[in-house]
Amino acid sequence: MEKVLVLLLLAFAVAYAVPDPRGIIINLEEGELCLNSAQCRSKCCHRDTGLSLARCAPKARESSECSAFTLYGVYYKCPCERGLTCEVDKTIVGSITNTNFGVCLDAGRSRK
């Protein structure tokens, strides 16, 4: 009887230890508060203004505004989805202020 009880407790301990796929600090869903894009499932931590709270958001689609990759990890415009490139004219001031915005274009199409 004691062996069954120990096995049952061990089974509950293992089941309880399995992590939730959603996450509290990483693997966040769209709309949840974030501090860095690495926390988000979509890999985009977006804020509207410098004083607003950043939230996870979907990546930019084709022909929509985007930001080039930044070391800050928080974007005013999300980077492009996979397979697209953000065509942007980078400036030093834009790099410092995180305002280098462009447009998502298909990487497979020739640039004209």
TrEMBL record:
Q: Cite the CDD domains for this sequence.
A: CLPS
Q: Which PROSITE patterns match?
A: COLIPASE_1, COLIPASE_2
Q: Which SUPFAM superfamilies match?
A: Colipase-like
Residues in the signal sequence: 1-17
Assembly and partners? Forms a 1:1 stoichiometric complex with pancreatic lipase.
Q: Which residues form the Colipase N-terminal domain?
A: 21-60
* Name under which the protein is recorded: Colipase isoform X1
One Gene Ontology biological process? response to food
- The domain of life is Eukaryota
Return the Pfam families for the record: Colipase, Colipase_C
Q: Where in the cell is it found?
A: Secreted
Q: Identify the keywords attached in UniProt to this record, alphabetized.
A: Digestion, Disulfide bond, Lipid degradation, Lipid metabolism, Secreted, Signal
| Protein function | Colipase is a cofactor of pancreatic lipase. It allows the lipase to anchor itself to the lipid-water interface. Without colipase the enzyme is washed off by bile salts, which have an inhibitory effect on the lipase. Enterostatin has a biological activity as a satiety signal.
One cellular component term from this protein's GO annotations in UniProt: extracellular region
Mind telling me which Gene3D superfamilies this protein's record contains?
Answer: Lipase, subunit A
Task: State the InterPro entries in the record.
Answer: CLPS_chr, Colipase, Colipase_C, Colipase_CS, Colipase_N
Colipase C-terminal domain mapped to chain residues: 64-106
What's a single GO MF annotation on this record?
enzyme activator activity
